[in-house]
Amino acid sequence: MIPPSVSLTSSTPGATGLLLQPDLPVCQAGFPLDRYDDAFKPYAEEYLALPDHTEASVLPWLDSYVLPATDYFGDALLLLAHFYMGGEIVSLIERYGGSVSDSYVLALQALRQPDKKVIVESAVHFMAETVAILAAEDQAVWITNPRAGCTMEMMAKDWMVDPIATQLVDRYGDDLATVAYMNTSGRLKALAGHTGGAVCTSSNAHLVVDAIRKTSEKVFFVPDTHLGRNTAHRLGIDPARIAELPMPSTLSTDTCLQDLPGGLDRLDQADLILWGGFCGVHTIFTTDQVKWYHAEGWEVHVHPECPLEVVQAADGSGSTNYLWSKVANAMPGAKLAIGTEGHFVQNARRLAETRGVEVRHLADIPDATAAGCGCATMSRNDPPHLAGMLDLLRRGEAPDINRVLPGDQIDDASGTRTRLSSSEQARLVRDATLALHRMIDITEAANT
Ligand code: SF4
Question: Which of 21, 41, 168, 366 is least buried, going by the fewest C-beta atoms within 10 A?
């Protein structure tokens, strides 16, 4: 519930356990003004003109926009953010009564809270689109910055995947089902739905792939080749029966199945066909980094978007909720190196410090060549976007480009949008919902 007026002090942590730090900058980005769309520029100008970006300066300014909106919308408003947002946005969303989680829990928010009619998300576009797919007609989903894309999702646009998927379906028919990782557009989730497959997240990929294999001989897994390989390893699938497709940038709309490495024989023998996408944030990790931390007496936990050899070398792997709970439940004196997105690790380090636990980013070793980078696109949702989105919504002047409907595609560079016709949208919602509900059913059944 959003309280009608929120007292923002640094002594009341939200569910993540994070506190605002009085002397730390509130914004991780501070973009130049040309990175804001016109409707948001006045908010960015005010924000950039603040004497500094510490809590003391930013909170009164942010309050002046957010609190009138939370008062105006009351319990109908739901603020959401993903764990990979910079720490201060995570703290701010919680301070204003919103919730922060991984992509599985975020996806269920509209479905689980039908009383929330105005849903505002600070995360990447596919996450907001997933909420919109599962939303009822009277629930509107908004994203604070529609240009916040996911580079992995961009490596598997429908126009890239569809030519290969169509040939696979032609060749294998009902023997092939698509499993679409949550980090895909609604258009690929719909492909999963109408080929008898399902959506999965990093927390349930093993459950979903295992369940789908009981009804389909072959699984076409999109887009993350590393999560696919890690899932196959966890399920004991013979590596010889995995066909990994090349980097998406090397494929064209004319690529035939027989042109792929290993040709048709390789595909015919495969139980699992992996699209060649990946996340640049999670592929900087190496087994040498794991070895270095182990030699220093640290435990290592990584996200399954990391390469298989890194996951195998680590002490454990799992979704952001898994990694957060490892830090939140570590005993005082524990030392944890975490292999995932940089903002998440910064947040985890701050939580850990309050409990006598040490946390470091896995890439942070002496003479490191790789920086522990954050998800730059997700961080495009910053305080000026949050303030502007809520103020514009309250005034009834929110730009339509910030409204998220199923099937929307945003061009990251130009900020332009392609939107499906209402009949195409309805088809997409039907198929993608099927794939999402299969995931939910599989996951809930495993958890009971
Ligand atoms: S961390 Fe990687 S996979 Fe996750 S949202 Fe960012 S670009 Fe996408």
Answer: 366
Determine contact, residues 65/43, Cβ cutoff 8 Å. Answer: yes
- From CA 31, how far away is CA 48, in angstroms rounded? 9
Kindly state the tokens that stand for 291.
């070895």
The per-residue pLDDT for range 69-109, each reduced to its tens digit, is 999 999 999 999 987 776 577 778 888 999 888 888 888 99
- Sequence-distant (6+) residues with CB within 8 A of 112 are none
| Range list of H helices, 96-156 | 103-107, 109-112, 125-134, 151-154
Asked if residues 428 and 190 have their Cβ atoms less than 8 Å apart, the reply is yes
Question: Closest ligand 1 atom to the C-alpha of 279?
Answer: 2
Residue whose entry in the numeric block shows the structure tokens 């899932």? 231
Q: Which of 226, 373, 377, 379 to mutate to test the pocket of ligand 1 (most atoms within 8 A of CB)?
A: 377
pTM as predicted: 0.90
